[in-house]
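Throughout our pipeline, every protein is held as a single compact record rather than as scattered files. Nothing more is needed to write down the fold, since each code stands for a local backbone conformation. The record that follows is passed on verbatim for readers who wish to inspect the format.
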Amino acid sequence: MKIIKPKIIKFAHPKEDSWIDIPKSAKNYIPDWFKKMPRQVGGVLNLDENGNPNNTMKACIPTLDAFAAGYMIELWQDIQVKKVLDERGVPSVRFFWGSKPQVLDVTSTTDVENLPIPAGHLDTHFIWKSVVSIETPPGYSCLVTHPMNRFDLPFTTMSGIVDTDKHPLGAGNMPFFFKKDFEGFIPKGTPLFQIFPFKRDNWKSEEDPETYGRAINASKKARSMATGYYRKYVWVKKKYE
């Protein structure tokens, strides 16, 4: 059997910041609320009159794959968030943390005038100041994005793609927006953004009517089992160590 060697993604940080952990596999950050969720509503598998199982999100392998894909940069120090009113009486927040290096910064609100703000977030543009450097093999880039499916976090990080083979990502700035209704502590270890390395390929789209037939056939095969068909016959396990 041919052994396929894993691709290597390299992480580093300045020597003076060696106390900060380098990114870990995203599988280490699957949230407790997902782990505790039963696979079926009520905890017992049942089919309705149309043969549909009472599965929850926990039974969805693509959702699990998204949680566990790539690597995660985590918050390396506790941050306290306090609500304040600015000179206009508009609600804002202040951040407090005890150690260096600086973990975040606030930019001028002028650069968000034409940028859509996520619903329920402050109209101030904040910055995560990462100290981690990232480098990938030739031909591979990185998608850096908000932790997938983590709508429970008190912030929303924006997404970007960096060609980390030609331009290793240094101590970069990641923009994010903060939710209006949060006040309290964001603990050390909270995932800040997810790093997904991928191979750059050229793609071209085309319409293929037969694709629909193949999809219907695949759906019929999946319905031959009450649950678990995708995991058993389709899913390809991914590894990020």
